[in-house]
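Work Package 4 report. The design task specified in the project plan requires that, given a folded chain encoded as structure tokens, an amino acid be chosen for each position. We show below one input record used in the internal validation round.
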């Protein structure tokens, strides 16, 4: 999908924006995972 969008726009700026958005999404997912793991750890009574 990203390759198709890149071919349509043809700009490296657009590609860099997509890369930045993907990075932010990844960071948010990591934070959510860490919160879930820590909550599970705390509930286990350790």
């Amino acid at each position: 999908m990203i390759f198709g969008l890149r071919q349509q726009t043809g700009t490296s700026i657009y590609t860099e924006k997509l890369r930045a958005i993907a990075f932010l999404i990844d960071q948010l997912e990591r934070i959510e995972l860490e919160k879930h793991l820590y909550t599970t750890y705390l509930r286990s009574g350790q």
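DSSP finds two helices and no strands in the chain. Validation will be extended to a larger panel in the next phase.
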